[in-house]
């Protein structure tokens, strides 16, 4: 089974000579700035997705807003959902609420993250990554 970290774009082989009993040099993969930036973008996007998903489920199941955890999740996700408020009407009966803003956010934020990752990859390419024209 291959190591998924070693196949991630942005991981380059760096020669690191280590004195070993057999005298064979050993290579070590070192994460580049591009790799770290991409991982950071996906980390932030994943955290947003988890929080918005939890909010959606909590509202759908009519979780009590007097619980500290529920209040924390609602307060953390208000700014994340603000751009999507009013796109679709909120549906629900009693405390059970189907929040379409959360569903739209669950679709849009991964797309934005993918766009940012693509931009990082394009902007961080060196001139040697492009084929030469004869």
List key phrases describing it.
two-stranded antiparallel sheet, two-stranded antiparallel ribbon, single chain, 134 residues, alpha+beta, elongated
Topology record:
Elements: E1 11-16, E2 26-31, H1 33-60, H2 68-81, E3 91-93, E4 96-98, H3 100-123
Antiparallel strand pairs: 1-2, 3-4
Helix pairs in contact: 1-2, 1-3
Number of domains: 1
Q: What spatial form do the alpha-carbon principal axes imply?
A: elongated
Q: Structural class of the helix and strand makeup?
A: alpha+beta
Biggest beta-sheet profile: 2 strands, antiparallel
Q: What is the terminal separation in angstroms?
A: 40 Å
The largest sheet has its strands arranged as 1-2
Spell out the helices and strands N to C. EEHHEEH
Characterize the structure shown:
The model has no long low-confidence stretch (mean pLDDT 81). The protein has a two-stranded antiparallel sheet with strand order 1-2. With 134 residues, the protein is of the alpha+beta class. It is built from three helices and four strands, in the order E-E-H-H-E-E-H. The chain has one domain. It has helices at 33-60, 68-81, 100-123, and strands at 11-16, 26-31, 91-93, 96-98.
Quick take:
The protein is α+β, with helices and mostly antiparallel strands and 134 residues long. It has helices spanning 33-60, 68-81, 100-123; strands at residues 11-16, 26-31, 91-93, 96-98. Strands 1-2 form a two-stranded antiparallel sheet. A two-stranded antiparallel ribbon has the order 3-4.
């Amino acid at each position: 089974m291959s190591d998924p970290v070693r196949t991630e774009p942005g991981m380059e082989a760096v020669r690191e000579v280590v004195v070993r009993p057999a005298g064979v040099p050993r290579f070590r993969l070192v994460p580049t700035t591009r790799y770290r930036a991409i991982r950071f973008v996906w980390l932030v996007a994943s955290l947003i997705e988890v929080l918005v998903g939890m909010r959606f489920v909590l509202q759908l199941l009519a979780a009590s807003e007097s619980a500290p955890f529920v209040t924390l999740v609602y307060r953390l996700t208000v700014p994340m959902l603000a751009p999507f408020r009013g796109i679709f009407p909120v549906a629900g009966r009693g405390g059970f609420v189907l929040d379409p803003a959360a569903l739209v956010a669950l679709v849009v934020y991964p797309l934005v993250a993918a766009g940012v990752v693509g931009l990082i990859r394009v902007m961080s390419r060196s001139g040697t990554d492009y084929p030469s024209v004869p």
